[in-house]
Amino acid sequence: MTTKKNKKLRLALFFGGRSAEHEVSVVSAQNVFSAIDKKKYVIELVGIKKDGSWVSVKTKDFIDKNFSLGKSTNFVSPFFENKKFFIWQKGKKSQIDLAFPVLHGPFGEDGTLQGLLSFFDVPFVGAGVIGSAVGMDKDVMKRLLKEAGIGIPKFIVYEKYESKTIEFNKIKKILSLPFFVKPANLGSSVGISKVEKQQDFSPAIKEAFKFDRKIIIEEGVVGREIECAVLGNDLPKASILGEIVPKHSFYSYKAKYLDKSGADLIIPAEVPSNIKRKIQETAIKVFKVLNCRGLGRVDFFLEKDGTILVNEINTLPGFTSISMYPKLWQESGIGYSELIDKLIELALGKK
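Structure (tokenized):
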């Protein structure tokens, strides 16, 4: 993509969305907006409301701590002409050079928005349609990782039409207690329950099916929770490692976003050098196997005997002030603003 000398790129920052991770997305986008170099980019703030409508957000409203996307009424529409992308509002159109989706969960992180942008040749930050889709669907993701010889926890998948056939004793026999019940297509630990006894089982199944037609039931791995950030396209690099030590029964939505003391983040993680290298190499392998680009955060379990298991990848990880992805790169020598620049360069195919 070429631009005139000294011309600023016009960047559309997408946030909000229709998923249960709407509020997390707003906070992530506020952090990205605060850190981005305004001397290099003209930023169009495009909020996606919970009903799917698009709105233009004013800067002064966005930086307000009490900001609510639901109050916005400046509706906009995407407009495409001659392979150029515009935001259309009140009879005026603004051309967009690049899209930066800061969306978490379905209808934003799962390949839907990426497909729309790809159809019209609009550069965007993050994985493409395939990488986004398989990264979102834990079932498909785990099957691909298993096929590639990458260690993962044991799991069972059920569709909603099978809900009446899900038996506690059968699951217990296969996975043992405790185990976790998760929506297949969601992040930020939304809809996840830890099942430690039979009384927990039915409520956990109902909770997971609230968010998706397909659920994952996964063994409860006893091990340390290690995370590694990945950055790049064809030749991705891995960050130093971080460890999450939850203070709740697991790293829940509350522990991640509502309780500031819900977990300790240890950066760098204290692991032997050979384990560190293996986790970093595996993170890059996961990134490539799942056809990711730009960025990703790979979450691991490290068992006492040194066994490494991949929990999942996040193709659009959180960018809140306590999120691991920017923190890991900051400790690896890449500051927040520089990280955003690199992500934009990767989206434009310059690296």
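The first helix runs from residue 22 to 35. DSSP finds eleven helices and 16 strands in the chain.
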